[in-house]
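Moderator note: this is an archived Q&A kept for reference. The question asked for a predicted structure of one protein chain; the sequence and the answer are reproduced below.
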Amino acid sequence: HSSLFALFLLSLFLRLALISKGPYHVDVLDLMMKAEYLLKTGELQPLFGSGYPLSVLLAAGSIRLCQFFGIPDAAFAVNLVGVVFGALAVAAYYALARRIFDARSALLGAILFSVSPIFLGLSVYGKNHVPALYFLLQAMVFLTRAVRDEKHSFFILAGVCLGAMGACRLQDTILMIVPLLFFVFVLAP
């Protein structure tokens, strides 16, 4: 567990060092405005398409938490969601790889995943891709435990994570149904 925690901390500090200084993308600006509107009125407005309600809730929670700690910058708070979930995704990746392979392979894979330019670039600003990826990876960790340990409670936890992924990015969740079924019935150890 110390490797998992160390990976999380290193990934977190790397992303904090590179966090975007403002709303890098128009989608981040829109997310920030919807989160601030939610905090002011209590009304959850849809973001795009399916609404991405969990993304708005996470952004609003991050804004409120940063305000509590005296950080009034809403753009920083929204970008912080990507940073934290990026680090969590690296930890989930490690846990999944460790269940499938071994500790050394998992560590090397997680380090490469953490510094991958595409993933690193996405996880320093506040879009909904990184939280969705975290929930997918965590669902896969629970699915491997459910199959290996034959405990139904892990199927329920995987379902909760996939529901959270859908609340972040519904279209990605729909696209992952077939690969996840293949993973559970063919590949899961």
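Archived answer notes: The CA atoms of residues 43 and 49 lie 17 Å apart.
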